[in-house]
Design a protein that fits this description.
This protein has 333 residues and is an alpha/beta fold. The chain has a single domain, classed as Glycoside hydrolase, family 3, N-terminal domain (TIM Barrel), CATH 3.20.20. Helices cover 43% and strands 12% of the residues. The strands form 3 sheets. The chain has an 8-stranded parallel β-sheet. Helix 5 links the parallel strand 6 and strand 7. Helix 10 packs across helix 11. The longest helix is centred in the C-terminal third of the chain and has 21 residues. The protein starts with 7 loop residues before the first helix and ends with a helix. The relative contact order is 0.13.
């Protein structure tokens, strides 16, 4: 499907990736696909019971999208290994990034994970974590990061990216521009990181620059406010970070995805209309809303209204939709 073939409602819906409740196709899920015309779904433990059940759920979602004249769906999951692994046994279990010693370990994880995701109809993995731990300080990412050497994190991350994408699983590197130095959990509150821009680029940002060079399909923006980059907005809502740094300075042409917009860092500080406006201004491709509820419909309505009222947002929408459709054609056909 081409950009010009999409209706205004389809263009708005393709910018949304949403979570849902239940283990099988239901009326709420049908509404998201048929009426809100979402471009993607994300699976959590509440959607997972057994391999056959997940396979049937993903197939039913893709079938319903086809019946509704929709492009195929991104279907994503967080399968990092270790503490963040949505798929439990009988899926292969890995100890997680801190326990990987070599690129061979990373390759084994990525090859096995890609094979198992392909078998159940998942086409996008919200991994690898590219956050770099500070050498001598605590971190919210202590149990999820590869380590405190940017070079090692880059090598391990790029190995995961390469082996996932060789098997048609889109990798989404996270959490740009890096949350390794934070101790406050953005699930609960909005953290500030007060460090100089050069350090952010050379230390925290190095693995992401490597991932850009490796052709990573997606990069997830963090819900951290980087005071040296943009003292007003967290990265996920910041044109300075998403467009100025990631797109222009780093020349990234893949998908830009927010972290979950239902997290405390966002909902406690910014009303949804402002959140949507900032994401569109920043040129974010995919707005991630992980919980079922009225915020999904509200975000869709807001995207539709904003893009119909602004020539600049229409231009950015076209760029985003062309990226989305490009990756769907590349990975989902």
């Amino acid at each position: 499907m081409l950009y010009q073939d999409l209706s205004a409602a389809q263009k708005a819906g393709q910018r949304l990736m949403v979570g849902f409740d239940g283990l099988s196709m239901n009326d709420t899920l049908k509404h998201c696909i048929e009426q809100i015309k979402v471009g993607g779904l994300i699976l959590f433990a509440r959607n997972i019971a057994a391999p056959d059940q997940i396979r049937e759920l993903c197939a039913a979602c893709q079938s319903h999208a086809r019946q509704c004249g929709q492009p195929p769906l991104f279907i994503a999951i967080d399968q990092e290994g270790g503490v963040v692994s949505r798929l439990k046994p009988p899926f292969t279990q890995f100890p997680g990034n801190p326990h990987m010693q070599s690129p061979e370990d990373a390759a084994d994880f990525a090859r096995t994970t890609a094979r198992e995701l392909n078998q159940i109809g998942v086409n996008m993995n919200m991994a690898p974590v590219l956050d770099v731990l500070p050498p001598d300080s605590p971190s919210v990412m202590q149990e999820r990061a590869f380590g405190n050497d940017p070079g090692h994190v880059s090598r391990m991350g790029n190995t995961v990216i390469r082996h996932l994408q060789m098997q048609k699983i889109m990798a989404v590197a996270k959490h740009f521009p890096g949350i390794g130095r934070t101790v406050l959990d953005s699930h609960e509150e909005l953290p500030d990181l007060d460090t100089d821009a050069r350090s952010l680029t050379d230390f925290d940002g190095a693995p992401f620059q490597a991932a850009v060079a490796a052709g990573v399909a997606g990069i997830m923006l963090s819900h951290i406010r980087y005071l040296a980059l943009d003292p007003s907005w967290p990265a996920s809502l910041s044109p300075t970070v998403a467009e100025g740094i990631l797109r222009r300075r780093m020349a990234y042409h893949g998908l830009v995805v927010t972290d979950d917009l239902d997290m405390g860092a966002i909902v406690k500080h910014h009303p949804l209309p402002i959140v949507v406006r900032q994401c569109l201004d920043a040129g974010v491709d995919i707005l991630l809303i992980c919980h079922a509820g009225p915020r999904i419909q509200e975000a869709f309505d807001q995207i539709l209204a904003l893009t119909e009222s602004s020539a600049e947002l229409i231009r950015k929408e076209e760029q985003s939709l062309r990226r989305i459709l490009h990756f769907k054609a590349l990975y989902l056909n």
